[in-house]
Design brief:
about 375 residues, eight-stranded mixed beta sheet, single chain, about 10% strand, alpha/beta
Length: about 375
């Protein structure tokens, strides 16, 4: 007997009030494949969809028949309307976090100021390797796509595949962390020589800059100060944009789908994310448990199979049959373990709609594979 409500995927993607679907969860649980499958299903059911992925392995590009994804949405060929549906389309893109950061700077600063920022060595390091930059830029790109969709009507559904973070919570925390860094005390302190009169250059400040010079080196400190001075006019913009995107994620037009594997760590991370979404008043559509072991479809328990194998081996009977019985027992135990983990999650989160997707025989490498996943998700309801 099912303990939790069923995630109705078709109702989710068909709802015209749903404009954004965010697939989130820990790394390695199939977020990219789930995002692509949802996007394809929505497009074939008549929605104008763009899917934004952050996928180092670039599997999505291969599955969608696109030679290379980049920071620009590109049409996916081969979308087939479902019976009675028409007008759908699907574009796909892959986040380029540095290019997105560059676009923010270019859109907010004068050409001269933007050039000064983009060529600064500290900016290059910040835009490519600062902790949280990828997560922040994923949300920035989401904001850009949403504004474009609102202004031009290009899309009526945006599907976002969140970054493969160390923690699923990083996606929500990164905008505040990055904007807080850019608006922090140290950054403001570094602005003093560029903004303030000479009388502000106190002995105390000289001591601080002297210490920073020893730690960072004189050239790097000058690069940081030059960068900060050039970026000063954009500080408010960063925080404002982060706040707007965060607010967008809290609206009814957004739906979060938490993706997990039937493993303890992945479901624990999913539970953290569900709790966080609830605390932040963000709309949770449900949970997808991906790559679940198919049902054994037999009443032969693991214990009975082991006992039968022991009997066969003791009587010097067929070792092949005994081996098959032990393999069956192992499979049943895996299925029981996964079922126990799902039931434990459901017991602590009984109101979270859930879909369970069986593991496929091979890797998804084409649109038919994505359709199969979409069909499996929809068959839950």
């Amino acid at each position: 007997m099912r303990l939790t409500p069923v995630l109705d995927v078709d109702a989710l993607v068909d709802d015209p009030g749903t404009g954004i679907i965010v697939c989130c969860g820990s790394g390695g649980v199939g977020k990219t494949t789930t995002s692509a499958a949802l996007a394809l299903r929505a497009a074939e059911r008549g929605r104008k969809v763009v899917v934004l992925t952050i996928d180092p392995a670039r599997r999505l590009a291969q599955a969608m028949g696109i030679e290379q994804l980049d920071n620009t949405p590109r049409p996916v060929a081969g979308v087939r309307p479902r019976r009675g549906r028409s007008g759908g389309s699907l574009d796909a893109m892959m986040l380029d976090m540095k290019r997105t950061f560059d676009e923010v700077v270019e859109g907010q600063a004068s050409p001269e100021k933007a050039k000064q920022i983009l060529e600064n060595p500290f900016y290059v390091a910040l835009s490519t390797s600062f902790s949280g930059t990828q997560e922040y830029m994923a949300m920035e790109k989401l904001g850009q796509l949403h504004r474009q969709a609102q202004a031009e009507g290009t899309y009526d559904l945006i599907v976002v595949d969140t970054p493969p973070s160390r923690s699923a919570l990083d996606f929500l925390d990164a905008p505040e962390r990055l904007s807080g860094f850019l608006d922090g005390r140290l950054i403001r302190l570094l602005l003093v020589p560029a903004k303030g009169p000479a009388r502000l250059m106190t002995a105390g400040f000289s001591v601080i800059t002297g210490a920073l010079t020893k730690i960072l080196g004189g050239q790097m400190l000058r690069d940081v100060q030059t960068f900060v001075a050039a970026l000063d006019t954009l500080f408010g913009s960063f925080r404002q944009r982060a706040d707007k995107t965060f607010a967008l994620l809290q609206t009814d037009q957004t739906a979060f789908v938490v993706v997990a594997a039937p493993e303890p760590d992945a479901l624990r991370e999913a539970a953290y994310f569900v709790d966080r979404l609830t605390d932040d008043a963000m709309p949770l559509a449900g949970l997808v448990v991906n790559r679940a072991s198919p049902s054994a479809r037999t009443e032969l328990s693991a214990e009975a199979a082991i006992a039968a194998a022991d009997t066969l081996e003791a009587s010097d009977s067929s070792s092949l049959t005994a081996g098959l019985l032990r393999l069956h027992a192992d499979r049943v135990r895996i299925i029981e373990r996964e079922q126990h983990l799902r039931e434990r999650f459901a017991a602590s989160h009984p109101q979270v709609p859930t879909a369970v997707v069986p593991a496929m025989a091979g890797d998804v490498h084409d649109l038919d594979g994505l359709r199969a996943i979409g069909d499996s998700l929809a068959q839950q309801a």
